[in-house]
């Protein structure tokens, strides 16, 4: 999956069976995780794929996450872009996260597309109606990256139509900043993200947005341990898109998406999530499907420290 | 190969950072209790809607094991920087004070806010914690 050599077109036709091949390791992970993983800390994170809420990783906890996105493509092969995240709560007000991105384009090949390092900070020490979080990320990715972790500037689906061999030659070093605003009210979470991204080369600032809303299906917990119960299910939706550049701030000429989300948070710290996404204009990929699994290891920092002593 | 070396270096740097955050703060339980006592008056007087309900205590115990036991211990006696929840400073606090503290946390001293779990579940946790006296 992370190989750098493109697979010849004839070896990898875009058939339904080849797409299912990518799903089978995920399904195996699902079964293994649900059965074998021991009880660990359960997270309180919201289920969004693109938007962020103000809830950070608990201090000392490590969350290992693996996600994928399948997208349809006009003028090129459909794609699956898997990525992995390692998220660590450094303090109660600072979370750091490291990403490894890759993608496979049907009829083209598989490529490793780069890494990202993000940090989120809570400037206010108490809960408020609206809670701000400051986000800074450094990206070292190629133009072949198709994880669509955000949409900024005049990003359109046609940017992803270039062959991997060309797109993966162009490296981008970018700084991405976000102002995350988030509120909790009667079990609902409402999150609004304003994104500013700057290519450290000669590109202008690009802007984007992401909005999210979510709620558990049941607010109270039941007395008995349970896996398949409403309290462990979260439903939500997110909407995201570009806002043009500093020279042309606009909702047009870019892409926009809306995506319902469902997440299943198991008491042992495993979370599964899935989100079909729909493009809202002709610049957008017509259909996206995101899915993933996260596993939270409570007290990871303490365990590492005890090993190093 | 160079990419692999960079990734390996990043991994070690991350482990070193984790180790460096080891002795975050020398937090004693009294520090936490003082913060709890700072709850605003309108929060302090709030009643636990689940008070006296055995089902809520059982649900709270389940939630405690999921969210709190990692730091405060399965026995709630606290460990490391995390407070002993059976101590008088917690047990003498009103349910409203504990609800305020649970929602806001104490970010400076390492206690995360638990506003991300629904209010009903926070009250269930408080019902369990108060049952430990």
Describe this structure in words.
The complex is a heterodimer of chains A (309) and B (133). By secondary structure, chain A is mainly beta. Helices cover 11% and strands 46% of the residues of chain A. Chain A has a 12-stranded antiparallel barrel. Chain A is globular. Chain B is an all-alpha fold and 133 residues long. Chain B has a single domain, classed as Orthogonal Bundle (Cytochrome Bc1 Complex, Chain D, domain 2), CATH 1.10.760. Chain B is 56% helix and 0% strand. Chain B has 8 helices and no strands. The radius of gyration of chain B is 18 Å and the shape is globular. The N and C termini of chain B lie far apart (59 Å).
Please give the alpha-carbon distance between the first and last residues of chain B.
59 Å
Quote the average pLDDT of chain A: 89
* Strand/helix succession of chain B: HHHHHHHH
**Mean pLDDT across all amino acids of chain B:** 83
Query: How much beta of chain A, percentage-wise?
Result: over 45%
CATH topology of chain B: Cytochrome Bc1 Complex, Chain D, domain 2
List the total number of helices of chain B. 8
Strand content of chain B: under 5%
Structural class of chain B: mainly alpha
What is the string of SSEs of chain A from the N terminus onward?
A: HEEEEEHEEEEEEEH
- Class by alpha and beta content of chain A: mainly beta
Total helical segments of chain A: 3
> Biggest sheet of chain A, strands in spatial order?
1-2-3-4-5-6-7-8-9-10-11-12
Residue stretches of chain B low in confidence (pLDDT < 50, at least 5 long) are 18-28
